[in-house]
Specification:
Elements: E1 2-8, H1 20-23, H2 28-38, E2 42-48, H3 52-62, E3 68-72, H4 81-89, E4 94-98, E5 120-123, H5 128-139
Parallel strand pairs: 1-2, 1-3, 3-4, 4-5
Helix pairs in contact: 3-4
The structure holds 1,3,4-trihydroxy-5-OXO-cyclohexanecarboxylic acid.
1,3,4-trihydroxy-5-OXO-cyclohexanecarboxylic acid (DQA) binds near residues 11, 74, 75 and 98.
Length: about 140
């Protein structure tokens, strides 16, 4: 069974409460329960952290043995060379995902330090971006 981590960065613990017009009204914990039912043949885990170091520690923890990481690093996407280096350091493939289409938003969201180190990028499909991330890892 493939082991896949869904890894969320800052402010994503507030999904369902935060800027619902952009991020929707479902909280991630209930969405994660749906995903576990939908993918019974995948060993899915979920971790969220608001701090950069905790995200990096989690990438290191799973990044040499697990089968994939679906990463929404939130605003750290646009700022963090340290998370980009962590993705480059590990062997587990990382899929970068975003709920919103960041290219339709402010200019500072158009650049990702992470994309070049990731296997692929999925964005703009709401919470379905995570579903597509899992599916992409199941295909490989
Ligand atoms: C986000 C987009 C980022 O620009 C933002 O800082 C987030 C969420 C998304 O999923 O659309 O926190 O990663």
């Amino acid at each position: 069974m493939k082991k896949i981590l869904l890894l969320n960065g800052p402010n994503l613990n507030l999904l369902g409460v935060r800027e619902k017009n952009i991020y929707g009204d479902q909280n991630f914990v209930s969405f994660f329960e749906e995903l576990k039912d939908e993918f019974p043949d995948v060993d899915l885990s979920y971790f969220q952290a608001n701090s950069e170091g905790a995200i990096i520690d989690e990438i290191h923890r799973v990044g040499f043995e697990w089968d994939g990481i679906v990463l929404n690093a939130g605003a750290y996407t646009h700022t963090s060379i340290a998370i980009a280096d962590a993705i480059a350091a590990v062997t587990t493939p990382v899929i970068e995902v975003h709920i919103s289409n960041v290219h339709q938003r402010e200019e500072f969201r158009h650049h990702s330090y992470l994309s070049a180190q990731c296997k692929g990028v999925i964005l703009g499909f709401g919470l379905n971006s995570y579903r597509l991330g899992i599916l992409s890892l199941m295909l490989s």
